[in-house]
Amino acid sequence: MTELASLTWPELARRERDGPVLAVPVGATEQHGPHLPLSTDTDIAVALAERLAQEVPGVVVAPPVAFGSSGEHQEFAGTLSIGQEAVELLLLELVRSACATFPRTVLVSAHGGNAEPVSRAVRRLREEGRHVLAWSPRWGGDAHAGRTETSVMLALAPHRVLLERAEAGNTTPVGELLPLLRGQGLKAATANGVLGDPAGASAEEGRALLSGAAQQLAALVSGRAAGTGTA
């Protein structure tokens, strides 16, 4: 696995003839209930980008974009949101710059709140003739800090998961909550910041989720999967 930040420019220049792909983890810094770290979305995006680099030759992993569009979480301490317009502009300029070295870029986004600005950025970049993909894991299950994300974090960093503090939040299907979330933010729907229930989460389940998602991403980037790859 090759990290961009660990390379010198001559080392990277020697790789250019192989047509390297830049994988950019796109995450967020936002609350994930009383038991998961603020970096959860970023940690997951980085892990998936690293697994992509292990599966597909020529993939280089960029430093993560650790701030996203998380305004709906703002009433919870520690959330740092830059909003949709800033996310879109950041990704536009980042990929435009990356194209000087990397023929292809894939944005690996693990935060649902980034979906709209990521999609808009990809559309504009493609109109400019740039080869860019955007991809997000589609695990289903709990919407936020429930069993799914708790399992994944138990697989990635069990020492950072405070299971003794894990508790259920609002378990109403997220589709029914969307008007409330968009109008008043997450605090109006859940006092503890959880949408779902982390009960039953396990590292084994998390490893299976990561493995399946990584295989889907690798198939997309290597051209073995159908579809556009947009998130």
Structure description:
Helix 4 links the parallel strand 4 (104-109) and strand 5. The protein has one domain: Creatininase (Rossmann fold), CATH 3.40.50. The protein is α/β, with parallel strands linked by helices and 231 residues long. Helices cover 40% and strands 10% of the residues. It is globular. The protein has helices spanning 9-15, 40-55, 83-98, 115-127, 147-156, 174-184, 203-221, and strands spanning 2-3, 21-26, 59-61, 104-109, 131-135. Helix 2 packs across helix 5 (147-156), helix 2 crosses helix 7 and helix 5 packs across helix 7 (203-221). The chain has a five-stranded parallel sheet, sandwiched between helices. Mean pLDDT is 93; it is low at 226-231.
